[in-house]
Predict the 3D structure of the following.
Amino acid sequence: MQPKPSISRRSLLASLVVLVTTLACGISLPQASPTEATLPEITEAAVNEQNTTQAIQVVSEDQVLVDLYARANPAVVNITVYGSANGQTIALGQGSGFVYDSSGNILTNAHVIHGASEIEVTFSDGLVRRATRVGEDMHSDLAVVSVELPDGITPLPLGEMESLAVGQTVVAIGNPFGLQGTLTRGIISALGRTIPALTVFSIPQAIQTDAAINPGNSGGPLLNLSGEVIGVNAQIETDGTSTSNIGVGFAIPVSIIRRVAPELIANGEYLWPYLGVTGGDVTPGLVEAMSLPVERGAYVAEVSDGGPAARAGLRGAGEVIALNGRQVRIGGDVITAIDGTPVLNFDDLLIYLTLQTSPGQEVTLTILRDGESQDVQVTLQERPSN
């Protein structure tokens, strides 16, 4: 049996070079198979089909907004408020609102209607009707007015706070600068913001959005793509030189709408719980200065005289020291839980009080004092008017 002829080293190297060069250039070598593979032919019809599919996708995305606007805009109204000056009735300003229920209750901002002697509501088709004040709450900046609804107008549904996420697409509909029925689109830029109310208190869980919100949008709905109200547009952040939007707007969250609006309709007011403390978050400076065994919590800087916290014996800061060139107020209690719910910062305390409690309710605060943990029972009161 004759041995197979050997391959020379030069021939082998040459073959390897050809193989490597071929692979690097992206050229497929012939396959030793009975059937030779062929690339599918790219025809004009195939290209047109791909372009049509892309066009349908674009149209469908736009159609979501078109359909949403068609459903929601009839329930969004322009609110004009009037007052008296020199014996004459004059327009004081305008804002937005939306139909809250089938009884004709319209939700808006308290700052839109506050101080008005007359209120008019303009619907999307131009119909104008007088409205009556039902109630307003300065602590949440929410208000309700009532009007006779035209035929075919249905209320906007409310969404759920738990379904919201940063990056989610949202839509604002309102009347910026009096331009009725304006839709703007953006995203949820942040959740859990705390914004100032029309009083000394704050509004927790506010929704931050970059959807354009301008003067006149106040009181209008912030909607998800299902057309559900997730907030009431209320405030914008400006650069200090303009009253126009620079991409940072805030809406009163649906979690607060659900608590406040029904009470305004039933009783004309909402009674807020009151603990009677001011403070902030635990900081590294406090941890060092007070040798705290925790890094997070709500620090009690002041306790209001005669308030629920004072009656329960809570303690505010009693001494100011210098630490690393900074003034630090020490000696206050640190709240680490309320009714067993962890409190990691002052906002956690505010959110729990806002959404889970009422005046007259007793809550249990877990506090740190002198390095020791203890529980304190506090009976909440109604917020003072001032």
About this structure: The chain is about 20% helix and 35% strand. Residues 44-72 form the longest helix (29 residues). The domain at 161-266 is CATH 2.40.10.10 (Thrombin, subunit H). Confidence is low (pLDDT under 50) at residues 1-40.
